[in-house]
Each structure stands twice: as structure tokens, then as C-alpha cells.
Amino acid sequence: MTTISEQNSTATALLPLAGKKGLITGVANDKSIAFAVAKAIRALGGEIALTYQNDKTAKYTQPLAEAIGAKLFLKLDVTEEGSLEAAIKQCGDEFGEIDFAIHSMAFCNGDDLHGRVIDTTEAGFDSAMNISCHSFLRMAKAVEPLMAHGGSLITMSYLGAERVVRNYGVMGIIKAALESAVRYMAYDLGPKGIRVFAVSPGPIMTRAASGIAHFDKLLESDADKAPLGRTVTIDEVGALTAFLCTSGSSGMTGQTIFVDAGAHIVA
Ligand code: NAD
After folding, report:
1. Are 174 and 128 in contact (CB under 8 A)?
2. Which domain holds residue 91?
């Protein structure tokens, strides 16, 4: 007769991400999309390293990392030279190979975000592009040697990449670059079995979203036009993202996948 603990470990071994390991960036608090991704990946049996941006956010994120059983809790500020590479090296030291890396980070100065895109400063554009887009390329480069047997690289985009969304301004341009990067990265890394995706959630009230002017109106109008008659939750984004880390999505790469209650199909 098998013991309960043997039965539990057999059940865990059957989960789609059992034995899979990876890195999840961008948890600022329990409302963060990345936190829901982390929960969904853990629920499917994956092991995770979670990153925090600075000591201020660690206060909120360390208890979250402990609550979901993250194996590593690492500092990562992509504007600090070597920070990204150091965090990924620590993942390699702990896990050996890794199977997924989630990029859920974005930043734009308020002054550059509000107003006309042609008024964006060069420094503001560079900073937003570096943190929100180029860091995904750098992340891919650093994890590539750890993905000897393939893996999934996933970033977060938004509809403002392909259509004008009021008050999204220069971030729309940067998300467009990010979605294009996903296609080129998928092409470059496909031969190694590394699959690359952008997940495009509808609007959700998070810390980053609170920097967008009249975000409450965007939430209302999106819910109004969405076929499902509502906006989405971070858990729905988490579930899709976790699926993209499983072998269930093995035939897919290079796409931007909406999780927005269908809002993007309605004019
Ligand atoms: P959030 O504020 O919870 O997460 C943003 C994260 O970016 C934070 O954890 C922050 O620490 C991190 N970050 C910013 N600058 C960084 C830096 N220099 N180094 C390391 N990390 C840094 O907000 P969120 O809504 O969960 O955002 C996650 C992603 O989802 C972003 O790419 C955002 O554009 C995207 N997204 C959000 C929505 C939405 O409506 N909330 C919709 C579509 C896409």
C-alpha cells in the first residue's frame, strides 16, 4: 500500500510543469501580473526563482515569495549593470538548466507617458525602451545557455502596440517594438527549441497601470466592449502564461496572444 506522501509525490509528478524550473521577474506586490503567473506555474508543479527590483519592494515581495515556495528570491534592477546577468547566473547555479523565463517589467517616466508622443524626450524614450523592451533581449541572451533543451520566454505586451489607445502614448511604440522583438527572437531561437511569446492582457489595475491617466475609464470602456462583458483578472493572465510554459503549447512560437475577454476584436 502506498503512503499519503508517496501518493502526493506521484500526483505532483503528473503535473504539466513537474520538474520544470524558471525565472519570474516583475513582482511588485500581490496585484502584479507576475505574481499571478508565479502562482499558476507553482500550481502546475514548476519550481521558480522570483526577482524583486529593490529593497523597498522586497518588503512586500519576500512574504509572497515565501508563501508560494519560491526556491530563490533575487534582486534584479535591469538599469543596474550586470544585475540581470547576475540573477540569471544564480538561477543557473541553483537549477542547472531552466525551462522558462518570464519578463513582466515596464517603466516610463510620467512626463514622457502623458502628452503627445512627439514630445517624448530622448532620455525618457531610451529609458522606457531599455527597461521595457531591450531587457527582454538581454534576458534571452543570458538564459540561452541555460536552455540547452529548449524553453519558453514570455513577455507582457498590450493592445496599444497595434492600435492607438488614449493615454498610452509612447508605451504603445515601445510595446510595438517588444512584439516585433518576440517575432525575431522566435525566429533566431526556434532552432534551439526556445519558444518566445508576448501575452497581451486587457487593462488590469496594478501599480504600473495606476501611472496611466484615466485608467478607470479604460477599464470601464474595455468591459463595455468586450464580448465577455468584463475585464480580465491577473489569474487569467497567469493561467495563459503558465500554459505557454507547458508542452501543451509546443507547436506555438512568435505570437502575441490576447487575454482580454475578447475586447481587441471589437472596433
Ligand atoms: P506591476 O507594477 O505590478 O509590475 C511592473 C513591474 O516592473 C514591477 O514589479 C517593477 O518592479 C518592474 N520594473 C520596473 N522597472 C524595473 C527595473 N528597472 N528593473 C526591474 N524591474 C523593474 O504592474 P503589471 O501591470 O503587473 O505590469 C507587468 C507587465 O504587464 C508590464 O510589462 C506591463 O506593461 C504589462 N501589462 C500590464 C497591463 C495592465 O493593465 N496592468 C496590461 C497589459 C500589459
Report:
1. yes
2. 13-265
With respect to residue 123, please indicate whether it lies within any of the assigned structural domains. yes
**Which of these, 43, 87, 20, lies nearest to 250 by C-alpha position?**
20
Best CA proximity match to 142, nearest among 233, 51, 252: 51
Q: Nearest Cα to 113, choosing from 165, 177, 159, 52?
A: 165
Q: Which three cell numbers stand for residue 200?
A: 497581451
- The reply to whether 158 belongs to the active site is yes
Q: What is the pLDDT of residues 104-162, one digit of tens each?
A: 999 999 999 998 999 999 999 999 999 999 999 999 999 999 999 999 999 999 999 99
The CATH number of residue 45's host domain is: 3.40.50.720
Q: Ligand 1 pocket: which of 39, 78, 80, 105 to mutate (most atoms <8 Å of CB)?
A: 105
Does a structural domain hold residue 8?
A: no
Residues β-bridged to residue 155: 103, 198
* 194, β-bridge pairs: 151
- Where residue 184 falls (left for φ over 0; alpha for ψ -120 to 50; beta otherwise) is alpha
> Torsions phi, psi of 55, nearest 5?
-65, -30
Number of domains in the chain: 1
Strands, DSSP E only, in the chain?
A: 21-24, 47-52, 72-75, 100-103, 151-156, 194-201, 256-259
Task: Please tell me the least confidently modeled range out of 4-8, 81-85, 129-133.
Answer: 4-8
Which residues are near ligand 1 (CB < 6 Å)? 26-28, 32-34, 53, 57, 76-79, 104-107, 131, 156, 158, 201, 203-204, 206-209
